[in-house]
Design goal:
Elements (H helix, E strand, L loop, with lengths): L36 E6 L10 H7 L7 E6 L2 E4 L2 E3 L6 E4 L6 E5 L15 E3 L5 E3 L2 E4 L16 E3 L4 E4 L2 E3 L5 E3 L3 E5 L2 E4 L1 E6 L2 E5 L2 E5 L12 E6 L9 E5 L2 E5 L2 E5 L6 E5 L2 E2 L8 E2 L11 E5 L15 E3 L2 H4 L19
Parallel strand pairs: 1-2, 2-5, 3-6, 4-7, 5-8, 6-9, 7-10, 8-11, 9-12, 10-13, 11-14, 12-15, 13-16, 14-17, 15-18, 16-19, 17-20, 18-21, 19-22, 20-23, 21-24, 22-25, 23-26, 26-27
Keywords: Aspartyl esterase, Cell wall, Cell wall biogenesis/degradation, Glycoprotein, Hydrolase, Secreted, Signal
Pathway: Glycan metabolism; pectin degradation; 2-dehydro-3-deoxy-D-gluconate from pectin: step 1/5
Catalytic activity: [(1->4)-alpha-D-galacturonosyl methyl ester](n) + n H2O = [(1->4)-alpha-D-galacturonosyl](n) + n methanol + n H(+)
């Protein structure tokens, strides 16, 4: 990467002091190619291969079997990014979820539907993201607003992993659409159904933060929901598992609501503040779904984890019932999940 270090220009005006190049602090330890990995670099100041993330994705060869690591320097990249099916094995490597972000501001209204509103849309297999944030900057809607859904990322490819990532939005932040996915040490914020879709996903040690408006003591209303899982048939092996996570923030919210009749969500060893409504869950106002949803809680703690007033269809899982959901075998990780390094 030597060509990307710009040397000092001769100073014609010494009185103005040293004028450094914007690229002088470009990381000196940029990783080098290996037989199995190629690197592309993105920097908004023009200090390396590309200035936009989409241009870097476009440059990856179609159907490449080797991993391409797209190294993204600090900054906010205001663009809409699509990783198509034809580009498997891509990694987005940021510099920290508070330092590197891809952001856009589409809504269901502006993009012809929630499913197209994502700032980032991933359709390929074996996608990895590390230490980067995905943001939708559209305004926070009020409950019931029409067309205000605003997805930060849609993940529609199989075998995706997110390590130390941030997901920022309000309604429908993270469209965890389909495939087997792993989220570790992530920060996920939103207001209504902010983790939704019909994927089979394991969330480990993640922070789930409600952005719903604070609710005054004594007020009964619900103004948010953490999940809306879309399992439509008992034959779908899909569901969201939250393992050793934390749920907090503002509002009075449900842990989940039954977007589809066989919605399946499990919270295990998770700490919940008292923003969780006592009934915990919602059947999308369709009592026939009470017979078909699978909502389980296991060994959770905190002010929101009291199960004494939970809805009738919520299951307090015993050890045997919980065991399929307590590790990454739920997403068959032994077949595909690479260690972080």
């Amino acid at each position: 990467m030597g060509g990307h270090h710009h040397h000092q220009h001769q100073h014609k005006h010494p009185s103005k002091g040293r004028i450094g190049s914007v690229c002088d602090d470009f990381p000196p330890d940029f990783p080098s190619e290996t037989n199995t990995t190629s690197y592309i670099c993105v920097d908004s100041n023009g200090c390396c291969n590309f200035t936009t993330v989409q241009a870097a994705v476009d440059a990856v060869p179609n159907l490449s079997m080797e991993r391409t690591i797209i190294w993204i320097n600090s900054g906010i990249y205001f663009e809409k990014v699509t990783v198509p099916r034809t580009k498997p094995n891509i990694t987005f490597q940021g510099q920290g979820f508070a330092s590197t972000a891809i952001a856009f501001n589409d809504t269901a209204n502006s993009s012809h539907g929630t499913f197209f509103s994502g700032s980032v849309q991933v359709f390929s297999t074996n996608f990895i993201a590390k230490n980067i944030s995905f943001m939708n900057l559209a305004p926070i809607p009020s409950p019931g607003d029409i067309g205000a859904q605003a997805v930060a990322i849609k993940v529609s490819g199989d075998q995706a992993a997110f390590w130390g990532c941030g997901f920022f939005g309000a309604q429908d932040t993270l469209h965890d659409d389909k495939g087997r996915h792993y989220f570790k040490d992530c920060y996920i914020q939103g207001s209504i159904d902010f983790i939704f879709g019909n994927a089979r996903s394991f969330y480990e040690n993640c922070q789930l933060i409600s952005m719903a408006n604070p609710v005054s003591p004594g007020v009964k209303g619900i103004n948010g929901a953490v999940t809306a899982h879309g399992r439509a048939s008992k034959d779908d092996n899909t569901g969201f598992v939250f393992f050793k996570c934390t749920v907090g923030g503002n509002g009075r919210v449900w842990l989940g609501r039954a977007w589809r009749p066989f919605s399946r969500v499990i919270f295990a060893f998770t700490t919940m503040t008292d923003i969780i409504a006592p009934e915990g869950w919602n059947d999308f106002n369709d009592i026939t779904r009470d017979q078909t949803v699978f909502y389980g809680e296991y060994n959770c703690s905190g002010g929101g984890a009291n199960m004494s007033m939970r809805a009738s269809y919520v299951q307090r899982l015993n050890d045997t019932q919980a065991s399929p959901f307590l590790n990454v075998s739920f997403i068959e990780a032994d077949q595909w999940l690479q260690p972080y390094s």
